[in-house]
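Researcher: Next sequence.
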Amino acid sequence: MQIILVLAVIAAAGLVLFSLARGLIYFAQGHRAEAEGNLRENQIMQNKMMMARVKWQAITVILLIIIGLTAAGSS
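Model: Next structure:
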């Protein structure tokens, strides 16, 4: 069970990193999007990536709490 939880934490942390990277890419493209007239779509994608990052961070923290509780219970 612990191994599955650890793998889930690794996967969720990877998705946090992926969402962060995509959000930073959209953030960096802000000036180009403004020049092309796509500023609204760019801002929407930035917000979506921020919400995805927050969601995956919460899932990661919950999984870490579960690991801590199961480890404390098995002592």
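Model: The radius of gyration is 17 Å. Residues 39-73 form the longest helix (35 residues).
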